[in-house]
Design goal:
By secondary structure, this protein is an alpha/beta fold. The chain has 20 helices and 19 strands. The strands form five sheets. Strands 15-19-18-16-17 form a five-stranded parallel beta sheet. Strands 1-2-3-4 form a four-stranded antiparallel beta sheet, with helices on one face. Strand 16, helix 18 and strand 17 form a beta-alpha-beta unit. The chain is elongated and about 90 Å long. The chain starts with a helix and ends with a strand.
Length: 484
């Protein structure tokens, strides 16, 4: 049946369909919307995507979506109507209705969830799987996702080819928003994340947040109906975090315009970083997703409340944070670290030995290390001295390929218009070599900025170290500064 839907969308022009059913002519691809009381031409079409959208009520979609909403029928019936009215001569076969109820089906699939590890591979915990009552259809080889605790709607997803399916409308009714019940029962003073898919919503909820999924463009139109209840609308606030693709950009623009019109508190925030969506981020870098969720909440409070960046201690206690990443267990972690000691006390020998241990993944001072690429800025050495020291340390062993050394001095001040500052120099190299996670600056005195007039020693140190702190946070690296 999915092929029938695609064929109808490809063979019919949205302008022809609208003009046919409304018995009107579109002027500049616009007309009065039939879905709400409006005298203005608020409905427009986009020929490049063959879709329609109303700027007044938010209705949008394909030729099938238009007929579904116009005639209040399901997708199957709308497709049959279009085929008949436009002479497409497509043959439709009535979907067989299962003998068991939706709830019976979901309960049966729930008992089989232990026979697949699909959701674990997608990064979901056992607690999340049980909370959302996820299931597995053994006969079809599909995982099953209920849309709410009411167990009255669901979607299935093939574990083989990743295609997903939804039940026939004449069996399950019109598709709701995933986790829609939270909108009417919400009692928390926290924003609700809006994403595209149920598994992305579950990925967010796994880390003490709340989320709903639009499950495509139709879910955005459904929000217009929900917001007719002013009491519900007045106590809701949102963070939009759709997929990082063209469809996600489109959904963000549409929903942002609608929420602005309805005067609902919201912000847009990319919690997925460089990844496709929240679940993709969860699978590839769990810590980044957790950081994204908490950063989004912080920005929401900062932008939408009268108390700026104040967050209640109660909310802070509900937050989840990534585990500390130790490059040498209980000794050096990500962020800025200082190694201080008297002159000629062996600091340079120590940090080179440290880089060798981390880059090879070998213990240091009896503690385990996190194998990572290291960059040692040997600002008081030359290549001959580095070779001599490495030979003594390695004792005939091989030097790790992910250990890099540089010697040129770039001060933190801008002293030459053609030469980068130290921060610019490090940024450029990290972009070229993103695998570098540990940077050692030996020594700080060689690169630090000049003190400002009447600036105290503490203020001077604080200003320079803050610049390194921001750099470390931006690139998620460990910076170790050697300082007398």
């Amino acid at each position: 049946m999915q092929d029938f839907f695609a064929e109808i969308k490809s063979r019919l022009n949205i302008k022809d369909v609208i003009e046919y059913y409304l018995s009107t002519h579109l002027n500049n691809n616009k007309c009065v919307c039939p879905f709400h009381n409006d005298k203005n031409a608020s409905l427009s079409i986009k020929p490049s995507t063959n879709t329609f959208r109303c700027f007044g009520c938010g209705a949008s979609g394909s030729v099938i979506d238009f007929v579904m909403k116009l005639k209040d029928i399901d997708k199957f019936e709308a497709s049959k109507t279009l085929s008949k009215d436009f002479g497409l001569d497509l043959k439709f076969y009535k979907t067989k209705i299962p003998n068991e109820s939706i709830k019976q089906y979901l309960l049966r699939c729930e008992t089989n969830i232990g026979k697949t590890d699909y959701f674990e591979k997608r990064g979901l915990s056992q607690e999340t799987i049980q909370k959302h009552r996820l299931g597995y259809d053994i006969q079809k080889g599909m995982v099953v996702i209920p849309y709410s605790g009411k167990m009255n709607y669901y979607q299935t997803r093939s574990i083989i080819d990743k295609r997903f399916f939804k039940p026939p409308t004449n069996y399950a009714g019109i598709e709701p928003i995933y986790n829609e019940n939270i909108l009417s029962n919400y009692k928390y003073d926290q924003p609700i994340f809006i994403v595209e898919s149920p598994i992305c919503a579950m990925s967010i909820e796994q880390y003490h947040a709340h989320a709903i999924a639009t499950c495509g463009g139709n879910g955005i139109a459904k929000l217009t109906e929900i917001f007719k209840n002013k009491k519900v609308k007045s106590r809701l606030s949102f963070i939009l975090s759709f997929d990082n693709d063209d469809a996600g950009i489109k959904f963000t623009k549409e929903l942002s315009e609608f929420l602005n019109k309805e005067k609902v508190r919201f912000i847009t925030f990319n919690i997925s970083g460089k990844f496709k969506d929240p679940n993709d981020c969860l699978q590839r870098n769990r810590d980044e997703l957790i950081k994204g969720i908490e950063s989004a909440k912080y920005q929401f409070y900062k932008q939408t409340t009268s108390y700026g960046d104040l967050v209640s201690a109660k909310d802070i206690m509900k937050m989840s944070f990534p585990e500390t990443r130790w490059y040498v267990d209980k000794l050096f972690t990500k962020g800025v670290n200082l190694l201080c000691g008297a002159s000629k006390s062996g600091k340079s020998w120590f940090v080179q030995q440290l880089c060798l241990a981390i880059s090879s993944g070998k213990p240091m001072l009896g503690e385990k290390t996190l194998k990572s690429s290291c960059w040692y800025m040997a600002l008081e050495d030359d290549q001959e001295l580095s070779q001599s020291r490495l030979r003594k340390m390695l004792k005939g062993g091989d030097v790790p390929e992910n250990f890099f050394i540089s010697y040129e001095i770039y001060p933190m001040d801008k002293v030459d218009k053609d030469k980068p500052t130290l921060i610019e120099y490090i940024e450029k190299n990290l972009k070229i070599n993103p695998n570098i996670k540990v940077i050692v600056i030996d020594t700080f005195q060689k690169v630090r900025s000049s003190a400002l007039m009447k600036e105290s020693m503490f203020a001077h140190d604080y200003r320079d170290i803050s610049a390194f702190k921001q750099l470390a946070e931006r690139f998620d690296v460990c910076i170790l500064i050697v300082h007398p």
